[in-house]
Amino acid sequence: MADTNEAYLKLITSEYSTKPLFNAYAAAFLNMLSPDVDMYNSFNGLFNIDAAVGDQLDKIGQLLNASRQLPMLMQAFRQFSMMSITGQF
Prior knowledge:
Elements lengths: L5 H4 L4 H4 L2 H27 L8 H10 L6 H16 L3
């Protein structure tokens, strides 16, 4: 979500709120920083495990040194499949 700088500009104390040069400087400074803040805030969505899909899961898995493959689960699934196919169930 894009950050509007109005909330920050309202925090300027009464001593400087009537000074147009200070307000212009503060607005210019906040406008310069605002895209960077928005970019850093978007990182939360990039590394959200609950919302990750596809390649995003692979990248998070590499960071955490975890694989998307579950060997024990796959082995149990294969055994269950073979048992149901051969009628040993």
